[in-house]
Amino acid sequence: MTGKRVLVVEDDPAIMELLHFLLKQEGLHVEVARDGLEALDRMDAAKPDLVLLDLRLPKLEGLDVLWEIRNNPRWQSVPVIIISVDDSPHTMLQGWQLGVEGYFVKPFDPDELLRIVRRVLSLPHEASYNV
Hints:
CATH topology: Rossmann fold
Largest sheet: 5 strands, parallel
CATH superfamily: Response regulator
Distance between the termini: 26 Å
CATH architecture: 3-Layer(aba) Sandwich
CATH class: Alpha Beta
Number of domains: 1
């Protein structure tokens, strides 16, 4: 997993710091975005191998960010894991229908999250960043 890139989209500074620490410990390169619009702006430059996405974000909600990722040919195959306080079955279903690799409800188990991150990053995916 060393050298893989993860874009963390999270507006809570404490959770952002925790995720940054956990992922760096795994040898991953971590990019951050604090709102939905910043996340979309960073997708091409960051070229992430994985996106960790909060749903309740300023400027553009997480499900809208996920929809944009899935409908952009350059990003559509990038794996996404949701980390959110939203535990409603309807929202979870929307995430799964948009092809997320995992859905974690805050507070989440860091060990379980890392297990899924490791699994996702060990799988080949055909991300294309041709502009």
